[in-house]
Design a protein that fits this description.
Mean pLDDT of chain A: 86
Helix content of chain B: 40-55%
Distance between the termini of chain B: 34 Å
Radius of gyration of chain B: 24 Å
Oligomer: heterodimer
Number of strands of chain A: 4
Shape of chain B: globular
Distance between the termini of chain A: 10 Å
Largest sheet of chain A: 4 strands, parallel
Structural class of chain A: alpha/beta
Largest sheet of chain B: 5 strands, mixed
Structural class of chain B: alpha+beta
Strand content of chain A: 5-15%
Largest interface: A-B, 38 and 52 residues
Shape of chain A: globular
Low-confidence stretches of chain A: none
Number of strands of chain B: 15
Mean pLDDT of chain B: 88
Strand content of chain B: 15-25%
Helix content of chain A: 25-40%
Number of helices of chain A: 6
């Protein structure tokens, strides 16, 4: 922002940190990269019963340029992997990634020629969610975990 | 053997080309010379007494170490006579090719491409023989038995040249050119990942191409390396919107191979759970489609109703509705919980209410009607020749539902109707799905009334696990448990095809057993695959915006389409 380059890690920027991080953590604009079964639980989390809007992350943005949270929902195989990478690269900083479900985290029980054994081989991941597919509660937990992570970040790093 | 009309006629007409015939577990099978496959197929289709108009499935099996090494397997169905036949054509490794049957059934196009992709069998005179599920840089054919299961071939980018793409212009003058538009693979309205290449004249679609395979995750390879019981979770994830129908289809195929009869109570449980799954499937399809067309309220209403059904499935199977994996060979994982009947009726009431509400919101909604009526049209003949099944076929007015044509479980004891459309467009598909949900509710209510008490699992030491008390207290029980867990259930050598009515149409499993605890080949006949093949035809001549409605109503499920 300019200020931080002058002041470094001083009182002004640390306060600025907390204000900006507070804003960031309650307004995730997610890009749902939905490929497989986990999408069904993503729908459940997103709609009225579990209501992800309570955490300020309900708004899907289908343009990577407008999103700051990439949700990789489902299995990634070697054919879609280059596309996932490209979507990630098109996102502007600050950006975070959630690996939604075991397939995205580690390949899950698909240990064969087709499936990428975890998206962290292609792009960096902030939060992994276990489960095949994860329950909506687990997804909400992951959002809270990511919020905690965002709070601790310095605006100098993003 | 003699009672099969088809086999008798084949034998009479082609005495030299039929190598062997047999009927195993009720499946009529003819092994034919590969040179004669086109003639035989044409005869089967055109002979009035046979009229095999559906090319249901086409796949191959790799018998490594046997000569000839490969076998191309065709499953045909005659709507008029309600007959099925399986053709098998051996193909040697040295000259790995067979004539294409696309000229007889256009549906064979993608199926043949898939066999070429995964097995490397070439189809002569095929109009467009390219890889379909994998990518061009992929070396080898993964479903061959000598391809290592975990040999991965990562790529940096996809080298993909659409066949319809011809950007070069003919002259330097001012001219009108068609625009090529890529839709997907990451597109908001493409739920599931699919790549459409549209050739546009203004907003009209002149030509299009569909590229699939972005969710290919090696279902068959995984199954070949797992015991019969371990395959059940993989089947859940084929059509993850109606997983229990997949469970039922798979376990019933294995039971057909084993030749066992399950208990009465279990039959009813399977019907109830299948129909619950069918409702969740249609709810999700209509919800997502309505959302894409701007009717957001519908999405929330239906997902709320689905949530209730998921809770119900969770009580029965222990997992939420996406992947409960509660089917078991020879029975079901658990009996229905206490008070299930009452809860189920309550939930069904809620679902009925949601359907009625959405009916009011959508069916006569001007915007929705205008976007659905007349778009995505396909004629009944085209639908049959492309092997459409399920709501998409019935919307054209063709009466075919596996539950009525070859009733399995207890569908013949239950009173229900098959809704039919007349126009073959998106609006009819929507109406058919809405009515099917009401019929499913009727089925569940009747099944709840009729369900008898009794055991759920059969008591067969080859198939089902003994009760835990027996495992802990007797050596026989322990051994039986140990054998089934470590070696798996062992059906006798043979093959079987069994179709069930899935959310999107005929969901068939074709399993080849070599007598071991693992399937030698486990093939799923994916209804979506045939439907996606027809997408190009359905959107041709329409507007770009109509692609969304049509694609939504096909209800493509990636897990099933790409497997």
């Amino acid at each position: 922002m300019g200020l931080e380059t002058i002041f470094g890690e001083s009182f002004i920027t640390t306060k600025l940190n907390s204000v900006i991080n507070w804003a960031r953590k309650y307004s995730f604009f997610q890009y749902p990269f939905v490929t497989a079964c986990c999408g069904m639980e993503f729908m459940s989390t997103w709609s009225s019963h579990y209501d992800i809007a309570r955490f300020g992350a309900e708004f899907p943005r289908f343009s990577p340029r407008q999103a700051d949270l990439l949700m990789v929902v489902g299995t990634i195989n070697h054919k879609i992997a280059p596309i996932l990478r490209r979507v990630y690269e098109q996102m502007c900083e600050p950006k975070w990634v959630i690996a939604f479900g075991v397939c995205a985290s580690s390949g899950g029980f698909y240990q064969n020629y087709a499936v990428v054994q975890g998206i962290d081989q292609i792009i960096p991941v902030d939060v992994y969610i276990s489960g095949c597919p994860p329950r909506p509660e687990a997804v909400l937990d992951a959002i809270v975990k990511l919020q905690e992570k965002v709070t601790k970040e310095s605006i100098l790093s993003r | 053997m003699a009672d099969s009309v088809t086999l008798a006629k084949l034998k009479e007409k082609f005495p030299n080309d039929i190598l062997a015939i047999h009927s195993y577990r009720g499946d009529d099978t003819a092994t034919v010379r590969r040179e004669a496959i086109v003639d035989i197929c044409r005869f089967l289709r055109e002979e009035p007494g046979l009229a095999y108009n559906f090319m249901m499935d086409l796949t191959a099996v790799d018998y490594l170490g046997r000569d000839p090494r490969f076998e191309v397997v065709y499953h045909l169905y005659s709507l008029q006579h309600n007959h099925r036949v399986r053709l098998k054509a051996p193909v040697p490794e040295e000259d790995c090719s067979i004539d294409s049957i696309v000229s007889i059934w256009p549906a064979a196009n993608w199926f043949e491409r898939e066999v070429y992709d995964l097995y490397g069998i070439r189809f002569n005179h095929h109009p467009d023989l390219r890889r379909i599920l994998l990518y061009e840089q992929f070396e080898g054919h993964p479903l061959r038995k000598d391809y290592p299961k975990d040999k991965r071939q990562p790529i940096d980018r996809i080298l993909y040249q659409p066949k319809i793409y011809h950007p070069e212009s003919k002259s330097d003058d001012l001219e009108t050119r068609h625009l090529f538009l890529h839709m997907g693979p990451a597109h908001p309205a493409m739920h599931g990942i699919i790549h459409l290449i549209l050739e546009l004249d203004g907003e009209r679609i002149v030509n299009s191409e569909v590229e699939i395979g972005y969710l290919h995750r090696g279902f068959e390879k995984e199954c070949e390396n797992a015991t019969y019981t371990q395959c059940i979770p993989y089947t859940d994830r084929l059509n993850y919107v109606s997983p229990l129908i997949n469970n039922v289809g798979y376990i019933m195929t294995v039971e057909k191979l084993l030749g066992i009869e399950i208990t009465e109570r279990c039959k009813y449980i399977r019907v109830i759970m299948s129909e619950i799954s069918r409702i969740t499937d249609h709810l999700t399809c209509i919800a997502a489609n309505a959302m894409e067309l701007g009717a957001f309220t519908v999405f929330f209403y239906f997902i709320q109703a689905r949530e209730l059904l998921y809770k119900l499935i969770e009580e029965v199977g222990g997992g939420r509705g996406v992947t409960p994996s509660c089917g078991r060979i020879g029975g079901w994982s658990y009996d229905l919980p206490e008070g299930f009947e009452e809860k189920c009726r309550q939930v069904l009431q809620e679902v009925t209410k949601a359907i009625a509400e959405v009916d009011k919101l959508l069916s006569k909604n001007r915007i929705f009607y205008d976007r659905m009526r007349g778009t995505g049209y396909i004629s009944a003949e085209d639908a049959i020749s492309l092997a459409f099944t399920g709501p998409c076929l019935r919307s054209c007015g063709v009466y075919y539902d596996v539950r009525k044509a070859q009733p399995y479980l207890v569908y013949d004891r239950i009173d229900f109707e098959i809704p039919l459309g007349t126009e073959g467009d998106n609006y009819d598909r929507y109406l058919v799905r809405m009515e099917e949900m009401r019929q499913s509710i009727r089925i569940i209510e009747q099944a709840l009334e009729q369900i008898p008490p009794g055991p759920v699992n059969i008591d067969d030491p080859r198939v089902t696990l003994p009760p835990k008390e027996e495992v802990y207290s007797s050596i026989e029980g322990l051994m039986r448990h140990f054998k089934i867990i470590t070696e798996g259930i062992k059906p006798p050598p043979g093959e079987a095809y069994f179709p069930v009515e899935g959310g999107n149409g005929e969901l068939g499993f074709y399993i080849v057993s070599d007598g071991s605890g693992k399937p030698y080949k486990c093939r799923c006949r994916p209804p979506c695959f045939a439907l996606m093949q027809g997408l190009s035809k359905m959107i041709q001549g329409g507007l770009v915006a109509d692609v969304i409605a049509t694609f939504g109503m096909i209800n493509m499920i990636g897990g099933e389409n790409d497997r």
